[in-house]
Amino acid sequence: MTTRTVTTLGILIAVTVVISLFFHFPVPMTHGYINLCDAGIFIAALLFGRRGGAIVGGASGLLLDLLLGYSQYMFFSLIVHGLEGWIAGQLGAGQRKGRQALALSLACIVMVVGYFISDSIMYTMAAGIAGVPTNIVQAVVGAVIAVLIVAQVKQHVKTEFTA
Asked: What is the pTM of this model?
């Protein structure tokens, strides 16, 4: 991994955390919150592959929980968002839009199931079930934002290097 890649991933972690800090909405029935961190994870995954997705996913999820006062979720977020980013990057990086949509869909399912399990372990199965709809919304919004941003980034990079 080059210094440039490490630096870029660090910036993506910071941007993901800052944006998610400003746009997070507590969901009392689940003891959690909705945020935009999935967008940053998917952007990293689609641009940098499985390693970038896993690094940005795990680090940003853990840091968000720490900074927002949800420390009980830190370990789960490290694993769940890290795996989400790894899957999105493994299956979607450098692929056509149809393959990226499939990769992001599978990654979204992993995140939703991961937090269902987390909530069920920490609280009750009812809390896990209550979190499913909000986690689906968070994942889908993140995927849509990521696809739009990645398309613009790729177009900009293509224009920069061909001009």
From this structure: 0.92
